[in-house]
Amino acid sequence: MKKRWRLISIAAVCALAVLAGCANNGAGGNTAGDGGNAAPTAGESGSGALGKIKERGKLLVGVKYDTKLFGLKDPASGNVEGFDIDISKAIAKHIFGDENALELKEVTSKTRIPMLNNGEIDMIVATMTITEERKKEVDFSDVYFQAGQSLLVKKGSPITGIENLTSDSTVLGSKGSTSVKNIRDKVNGIKVLEFDNYQDAFNALKAGQGDALTTDDAILYGMSAQDPNYEVVGKPFTDEPYGIAVQKGNSDIVQAINDTLKELHDSGEYDKIYEKWIGKKPSE
C-alpha cells in the first residue's frame, strides 16, 4: 500500500513539473517562436524592451516621408533623408554600433501613435511635439528639436502673420497634428481643411484651396525651399518641442535615446546635423 502511494506521489510531482514548464513557455519565455521580430510591448522595462530590439538585430523607426529637411523620400533613389533620419541613425549606432541596423517605416501625424502602440515600430522620430495629452498615450525622450508654429503663404499674400487670419480665412493642415488644434484655438471660427500628410496640404495650397498652410516653422521652411514662390510669414505663435516617442513603460528605450542625444550634444555632432539640414546652428 505504501509503495502504491509513493508511486502516485511521484507521478503527481512529474505532472506538476510538466505543467509548470508549459506555463513558462506560454508566458513568452520562448522568443524563437516569433523570430525575435516583434516590437517591444507596452510596459516592458529593464532589459526587456531594449533586449528584444537587440535580439531582432535592427531598430524599427517611424519617420515621415513627405517632410523636407526632416524626412523626405527621394522618388528616384528610394532613399529617405533628413534631420530625423540622421537622429535615427545615431540611435541605431548607439544601440548596435552600426547606423545601418535600421529599418525606416513611413508614418503620418495621424498614423504614428497607432503604429507605435500596435507594435509595428519601436519609436517615432517624426517632428512630434511633446504634449500632456500625448504623454497619456506614449513616453517621450528629452527634447531633440525646438520648433514653433507659423504660417506658409504665397508670396504677395496680404497675410503676414496670424493677426491677419479671421473666421473668413481657410487654413490647411495635417490630420492628427497639434497645429490644427492650435489654429482653431487661436482664431475663433476659422475654417480648417485637414489632409493626410503635409505634401497633400502643400499641393492644396498651391491649388488655391486655402489662404495659408500652418504647421511648425521648421517644416514650412522645407516647403518654401521646395517652391520659392511660397514663404513663411510672421513670428512663431506656439512653442513646439519635438520628442521621440516610445510605448509607455519602455523606460530602457527612452534611456538609450537620451544617452544618444547627450552623446551627440557633447561631441558637437548634433550641431553638425542641425546645420546640415536647417542651414544654421541651433543657437542662431
TrEMBL record:
Domain Solute-binding protein family 3/N-terminal: 58-281
UniProt entry keywords in alphabetical sequence: Signal, Transport
Family indicated by similarity: Belongs to the bacterial solute-binding protein 3 family.
Name of the protein described by the UniProt record: Glutamate ABC transporter substrate-binding protein
Signal peptide start and end residues: 1-20
Entry keyword Transport: yes
Domain of life: Bacteria
The keyword Signal belongs to this UniProt entry's keyword annotation: yes
Cited InterPro entries: Bact_solute-bind_prot3 (IPR051455), Iontro_rcpt_C (IPR001320), Solute-binding_3/MltF_N (IPR001638)
All residue ranges annotated as the Ionotropic glutamate receptor C-terminal domain in the record: 58-280
SMART domains: PBPb, PBPe
PROSITE patterns xrefs: PROKAR_LIPOPROTEIN (PS51257)
Organism of this sequence: Paenibacillus rhizolycopersici
